[in-house]
Amino acid sequence: MSNPQQLRYSKEHEWLSASEAGVSAVGITSHAADALGDVVFVQLPEVGAVVTAGETCGELESTKSVSDLYSPVTGEVTDVNQDVVDDPSLVNSAPFEGGWLFKVKTTEEPSDLLSAEEYTAFTGG
């Protein structure tokens, strides 16, 4: 699965959508979803929580392991994807669409996120 051009990517394998009124969606990449295996549980930050770029804000549990979820940006969580909480397999089946994890109102523009091409090169894809 190729990385959508309109998204930006972190080296921790999260993606960030373009900001709409200062709010961006966050998810994990298909590369990360493939590496995790079948995701069976997600723990997401709560609405109203403040997340910090590069710091953990949740967890993803798969049949293989438990992995930390990192925020690619600093800001306030405005929404969480209840569909993913109810059906964690969406992270694997639709990582860039229905498998988004949370939305965040950013307080600063991230400077260290990668373009789709840079992320593909970073992951060796």
From TrEMBL:
Keywords: Lipoyl
Cofactor note: Binds 1 lipoyl cofactor covalently.
InterPro entries for the chain: 2-oxoA_DH_lipoyl-BS, Biotin_lipoyl, GCV_H, GCV_H/Fam206, GCV_H_sub, Single_hybrid_motif
Cofactor(s) the record lists: (R)-lipoate
Keyword Signal: no
CDD domains membership: GCS_H
Domain Lipoyl-binding: 23-105
Highest taxon, organism lineage: Bacteria
PROSITE patterns, sorted: BIOTINYL_LIPOYL, LIPOYL
Modification N6-lipoyllysine occurs at: K64
Function: The glycine cleavage system catalyzes the degradation of glycine. The H protein shuttles the methylamine group of glycine from the P protein to the T protein.
Quaternary assembly: The glycine cleavage system is composed of four proteins: P, T, L and H.
Family: Belongs to the GcvH family.
Annotated protein name in UniProt: Glycine cleavage system H protein
Record organism: Streptomyces fildesensis
Gene: gcvH
